[in-house]
Design a protein that fits this description.
The strands form four sheets. Strands 5-6-16-11-12-15 form a six-stranded mixed beta sheet, with helices on both faces. Strands 1-2-3-4 form a four-stranded antiparallel beta sheet. Strands 9-8-7-10 form a four-stranded parallel beta sheet, with helices on both faces. By secondary structure, it is α/β, with parallel strands linked by helices. The chain is about 40% helix and about 20% strand. It has three domains: about 80 residues, no CATH class; about 140 residues, 3-Layer(aba) Sandwich (Rossmann fold); about 220 residues, Rossmann fold (3-Layer(aba) Sandwich), CATH 3.40.50. α6 crosses α16 and α8 packs parallel to α10. The radius of gyration is 22 Å and the shape is globular. This is Tryptophan synthase. InterPro entries: Trp_synth_b_CS, Trp_synth_beta, Trp_synth_beta/beta-like, TrpB-like_PALP, TrpB-like_PALP_sf.
Length: about 475
């Protein structure tokens, strides 16, 4: 257990901040008396209690003997100082350490301030919901009778995010962030994309709102996802090919960040998933949690009870955190994520993702989370049949859910994902994205484990039109 005297407090420039044991203990007492936790999970230590505090201003804290920096944040309310501290796995995404260049601090602080205002503004959410007819919300939830029969286990239901306009859940986040961008006064929008689905969603909303749009996409992914590249261009957006690194999603993110650094005053970087530094993972989660909220309501209306488990694919993790988050406090509902493990059907070499479903703690694109890296901390290149799974890390809130044991994450190989793809197509008449197919296969495992008296929901995050050629090529 961490105690107050274990720490040296300083600001992000390294300047010492006055402290003392009485000061810390008073803050701790103020916290326990006044701060309400975001999650109904029992804090088990001094560190855990600080980690749940809701704060604004950032400081660095260096702990004796732990060997890596942690973040302490504080807010003064009515003369009382409230603190929080992150643990190494990043508790809820509000607690993400901002591992970002100094040039980013002001714009990220502005984004945090404006989003905090939006988050507490009923008019903002009313405007968000006014686009539901455009998006196609609420999306349907229905039983998958033939899958249930074929698998011989739990009753299976499908949450159909593939029926959203543009073909995936990505529109939820794109809409929310662009409404924030409008409040920030930004007229130029940039985004990264792997499968092209986030690019299509961003381009569609930019066209709807009359905003300039630039999409960064790895050249390797552009070859795989030609249909979505054409859709993005038809919607009036510019597609910039990324030829550095592995020419995939990670590199598209890096190039988008470089663009953003040079154009911060006019440009908004619309991150496609629940990754990066605070408040980005929080924003993406908040805009995607409509998936889980609708699932709750629909399952109660259809079956009279909550599901025993919800299953989603986890690349970076936006659809999964959107499905999981409303169920976190429902301890009887298992949260199950399917991660890419690659496969030898694509290459004779065993891909990096086959080594571990989640990886080890490290820093990538502004946040400390779990990621694929070697013993020297060098990022490993994932190699999945699904472009959207080719990212070496996961969102920090998924890392936290894993560290607490609240969510489970399992590896699915390319071959198994293709099996899931064909099962859903041939038994239910639905062609899923290859990303979603990972969740379908994991749901098969889970359904057979749970038995016939249970029920599970699979998040069908995206349609598979973009992957038809890829699957046909692999079949030969």
């Amino acid at each position: 257990m961490l105690r107050p005297h274990d720490f040296k407090l300083c600001d992000r420039f390294g300047t010492p901040v006055p402290e003392g044991e009485e000061f810390w203990l008073q803050i701790y007492a103020d916290y326990t008396a006044n701060i309400e936790k975001d999650y109904d999970l029992e804090a088990t230590s001094f560190e855990d209690k600080y980690a749940n505090t809701d704060c604004i201003k950032d400081f660095d804290i260096i702990s004796g003997g732990r060997g890596h920096p942690e973040m302490l944040t504080h807010e003064v309310i009515d003369g009382i100082t409230y603190l929080k501290m992150c643990n190494r796995y990043m508790r809820p995404s509000e607690n993400s350490i901002n591992y970002i260049p100094e040039a980013f601090y002001d714009c990220m602080a502005e984004l945090e301030r404006v989003y905090s205002e939006c988050r507490n503004d009923d008019m903002f959410w009313a405007e968000f919901r006014s686009f539901y007819p455009f998006i196609g919300r609420p999306t349907p939830l229905h039983a998958a009778d033939r899958l249930t029969e074929a698998w011989g286990g739990a009753r299976v239901y499908l949450k159909r995010e593939d029926l959203c306009h543009t073909g995936s859940h990505k529109l939820n986040n794109a809409l929310g962030q662009l409404l924030v961008a409008k409040r920030l006064g930004r007229s130029r929008i940039i985004a990264e994309t792997g499968t092209g689905q986030h690019g299509v969603a961003t381009a569609a909303i930019c066209a709807k709102l009359g905003l300039q749009c630039v999409i960064y996409m790895g050249s390797r992914d552009m070859q795989r996802q030609k249909l979505n590249v054409q859709r993005i261009q038809m919607l009036g957006a510019q597609v910039v090919p990324v030829t550095s690194g592995s020419c995939a999603l990670k590199d598209a993110v890096s190039e988008a960040m470089r663009d953003f650094v040079g154009n911060m005053e006019t440009t908004y970087y619309l991150v496609g998933s629940a990754v990066g530094s605070h408040p980005l993972p929080t924003m993406v989660r908040d805009f995607q949690r409509v998936i889980g909220c609708e699932t709750k309501e629909q399952m109660l209306a259809l079956t009279g009870k909550l599901p025993d488990a919800v299953v989603a694919c986890v690349g970076r993790g936006s659809s999964a955190i959107g499905m999981f988050h409303p169920f976190i406090a429902d301890a009887d509902v298992r949260l199950v994520g399917a991660r890419a493990a690659g496969a030898s059907i694509v290459s004779n070499e065993q891909p990096a993702t086959a080594a571990a479903a989640l990886g080890t703690p490290g820093v990538l694109h502004g946040a400390r989370t779990l990621l694929l890296q070697d013993a020297r901390g060098q990022i490993l290149e994932p190699d999945s049949v699904a472009s959207g799974m080719n990212y070496p890390g996961i969102g920090p809130e998924h890392a936290w859910l894993h560290s607490t044991g609240r969510a489970e994450y399992y590896s699915v190989t390319d071959l198994q994902a293709l099996e899931g793809f064909h099962m859903l197509a041939r038994l239910e008449g639905i062609i899923p994205a290859l990303e979603t197919a990972h969740a379908v296969f994991q749901a098969k495992r889970l359904a057979q484990e749970l038995g016939t008296d249970k029920q599970i929901v699979i998040c069908i995050s995206s349609c598979g039109d973009k992957d038809v050629d890829r699957v046909a090529q692999l079949a030969h």
